[in-house]
Amino acid sequence: MRQGLVVQGLSKSFKGAPHPALEEFSLSLAPGSCTAVLGPSGSGKSTLLRTVAGLEIPDRGSVLLDGQDLATVRPERRGMAMVFQRPLLFPHLNVLDNVAFAARIRGVPRRRARADAESFLELVQMQGTGRRAVTGLSGGQQQRVAIARGLAARPAVLLLDEPFSALDPELRSAMHELLSHVREQLNPMVLMVTHDRDEASAVADQLALISEGTLLQHSSVEAMYTRPVSLQVSRLMGGTNEVPGTIRGGVHYSALGAHALPADHPWAEGPATLLIRPERIIVLEDHNPGLPAVITRIRARGPRRLMTVEAAGVTLNAEETTCPHPAPGDTVRLQLPTSALAAVAPQPTAETSALISPTPKVPA
Ligand SMILES: Nc1ncnc2c1ncn2[C@@H]1O[C@H](COP(=O)(O)OP(=O)(O)OP(=O)(O)O)[C@@H](O)[C@H]1O
C-alpha cells in the first residue's frame, strides 16, 4: 500500500561545519505530492535530499518509503531517482542510450530498453532526438534527458536538487510545465530543492522551509505565506511588514488601529506582531476610505511598484500596480484586507511562537 515517504528525526553533522547540516529533521510526503524544500544557502537542503537518496548516511533518524525503513537499502534499490543542477549525462552514450541506461544495467534487452526510453523521451518532449550526442544538446534539453533517464527507472520518488537553476527564466517556465505534465502522467512523489520562492510556488503543492538543518514549517504554499508560524518564517518568505501590538478577541491592536485577524485561526491573546503581506495591501488615492499614509519611496519591479509608506508612525512596504501616477510625498489611503494579515509571537522562540500558532504543521 502506498503510504508515502516519511523522514523521522534525521540528524547529520559534518566535521568543521558551524551547525549540524540536519538536526532532528522530520517530514512526511503524501503519495503523489510535490514538496519544495526552501531555505537559505547552507541550510541543509542538499544534505536532506542526499540522505533520503541514501548517498549520505545519517548520524541518527530514519527514512521510510511506504512503511519500509530504508536504512539498509542501497541507493539504487530505494525506488528513487535524483536529478541535479547539472545533468550529469554519460557523454559517450547518445540520448536514447542515456535514457535506456538503467534498464540495460537491469538486464533488459537492448531493443526493449530503447523502445521504453523512446516513450520517456516523448514524455519530456524530446522525441526524435535519440540518436543525437548529448554533448550537442542545449542545457535545457540535457536537463530534459536527465529527467527522462530518472523517470525511466520508474521511481516512486523523484528527488530534484535545484534542477532548473542553471536555466534562463523562459526555459525554467517550460521546465515547470514539464514537471506538471510528468506529475499528471506518472504521479511520482516529488521532493525538490530550490532557492527560489516563485519557483517553489509554481511547481509544488507543499513547502518545507529549512534553516540551519531544522524544519521551520511544512505547509501548503498559501499557508507558508499567510500563516507563518514565526517571524523567521515570515521574513524568509519575503514578509517585511511587522507591527508590534496586542491581540484581544481575535483583533490586533497597534499604532495602525484595530484589525480583525482571519477568523479561521485560533489567535492567542496577548502581545503579538502583526504581519501584513506587502502584495496584499491596497493603495488608493487620498479621496478613498482607508488608513491615511504618505509615500516615502517608490521602486519599479517589472510591472509592479514597491512602495514604502508611513502610516501612523509605522513604515510599511506595499507592492501594488493600481494607484495612478504615485510620487514620493503624496498622501494615499491604505486598505489592509483581512487576507493580508497574520500574527506571530513577538519573540521568535519555539515556546512563544507556539502560543500564537499552536502547531508548526499548518494544514493545507
Ligand atoms: N560533504 C560535506 N563535508 C563537509 N560539510 C558539508 C558537506 N556537505 C554539506 N556540508 C555542510 O553542511 C551544511 C549544509 O549543506 P547543504 O549543502 O546541505 O546546504 P544547502 O542548503 O543545500 O546549501 P546551498 O543552498 O548553498 O546548496 C553546510 O554548512 C555545508 O557546508
From TrEMBL:
Residues 344-364 are annotated as: Disordered. SUPFAM superfamilies: MOP-like, P-loop containing nucleoside triphosphate hydrolases. CDD domains: ABC_Carb_Solutes_like. This is Spermidine/putrescine transport system ATP-binding protein. One of its GO terms (molecular function) is ATP binding. The keyword Signal does not apply. Keywords: ATP-binding, Cell membrane, Ion transport, Iron, Iron transport, Membrane, Nucleotide-binding, Transport.
